[in-house]
Amino acid sequence: MNPRLPRTLSADQAIPRTDVFKRQLSLSAILTVALTGANALVSPVAQAQTAWPDKPVRIIVPYGAGSSPDVLVRILAERIGPRLGQPAVVVNRPGAGGNTGTGYVAKHPPDGTTFVVSTNGPLVYNTVLYRKLGYDPLTELRPVVLAGGQANVCAVRADSGITSLMGLVEAMKAHPGKFNFSSTGVGSLSQLGVELLKVKTGTFAVHIPYPSSPQAITAILQGDVQFACVPAVAVMPQVRAGRMRALAVSTAKRSELTPDIPTMKEAGLPEIESVAWMAIMAPAGTADAIIQRMNREINEALAAPDVKQRLHAQFMEPLGGSPEDLRAFMQNELRVMTPVIQRIGITAD
Question: What is the count of structural domains for the chain?
Fold first, then answer.
């Protein structure tokens, strides 16, 4: 499959190793150093880089269990832990639409023990939505790898009587003030996609944020909200069980993972496209050798056939690339999304 991400919400449109002892020493000098303690000549930072990892590596998920980042990183952790020689421990730290866990890692010492798998909102969009975000993802976090992406799926409860995306639009117009929608948090793509839909169609619905996509779906099933456009991993099991109806996918072309669901354009809204992406980040200041090792291990995991199969089963597309690729991608997301968010006219604080 083509790993290239579709454009986002268009409003219009071998690791370099540190050679600690690279010195011109005679054989006798080397023997002397060895006998008296070579470690005395090596800085603590260099030692840490050479030995990394010498303890378990934590990967923070800033959303609840069962969310897309949680599912993706648990699959990856099983693969990379043995290769690193230390457990890769997944820790959920949800709150504030992903800002809590993402900000925690942004402020964490850059010692190679802690990473985060975060998403569009906490890593890019919230820099525009929040006046006081509490951390700067572009300067306090260092890119590791763009790990995966997936389409958002707009869906309603199966017994709603709504059978198409335009049918949802007409229902909102006919019953103003009667529709709520759930999302994975303020500033998430699952909010912004619907906000753009509202602007394009002149409709109104109240936003109700939740800590994770499974909870956003549960809200629909319980009747607390009427619809959502959230990652496929949470929607499709309910669609297959007959409890929900999928109306459209957010990508520019039909997804090979959900081939029977029309795109937004096919459903009548040509100017709305989006993809939910997930990236691994580290605290700024994390050593180059650690970043490159983690990048290599995750890329190799993403390329493994069994990992691809498991991710596809969860409606996720493995991506990958270099840290520089991820940095450029995030900068482009910021460039594209800033005018979109400003056009929508929403703020988070």
Answer: 2
Whether residues 56 and 89 fall in one domain: yes
Q: Which two tokens stand for residue 117?
A: 């798998």
Phi and psi dihedrals of 264, rounded to 5? -55, -40
- Report the predicted TM-score, pTM, of the whole model to 2 decimal places: 0.82
- What is the pLDDT, as a whole number, of residue 236? 96
In a domain, 257, yes or no: no
Token pair of 327 as six digits: 């940095």
Beginning with the edge strand found earlier in the chain, give each strand of the sheet holding 57-61 in spatial order: 88-92, 57-61, 114-119, 276-283, 141-150, 317-318
Supply the CATH number for residue 195's domain: 3.40.190.10
Secondary structure string (H, E, C) spanning 61-127: ECCCCCCHHHHHHHHHHHHHHHHHCCCEEEEECCCHHHHHHHHHHHCCCCCCCEEEEEEHHHHHHHH
- Could you tell me the residue range of the domain that residue 167 belongs to? 152-249
**What are the tens digits of pLDDT across the range 54-75?**
999 999 999 999 999 999 999 9
Q: Does 259 fall in a domain?
A: no
Spatial contact of 251 and 229, defined as CB atoms under 8 Å apart: no
**Quick one: pLDDT band at residue 11, thresholds 50, 70, 90?**
very low
Q: Are residues 41 and 143 in the same domain?
A: yes
Q: Where are the alpha helices (DSSP H) in the chain?
A: 27-36, 44-51, 68-84, 99-106, 120, 126-129, 165-174, 189-201, 213-221, 232-240, 288-303, 305-313, 323-344
How much is the average pLDDT of 129-141? 96
Q: Is the dihedral of CA 279, 214, 208, 343 positive or negative?
A: positive
Sign of the CA dihedral with 217 first, then 263, 337, and 196 last: negative
The predicted-structure confidence for 12-64, as pLDDT tens digits, reads as follows: 433 332 333 233 223 233 223 333 343 434 444 444 445 899 999 999 999 99
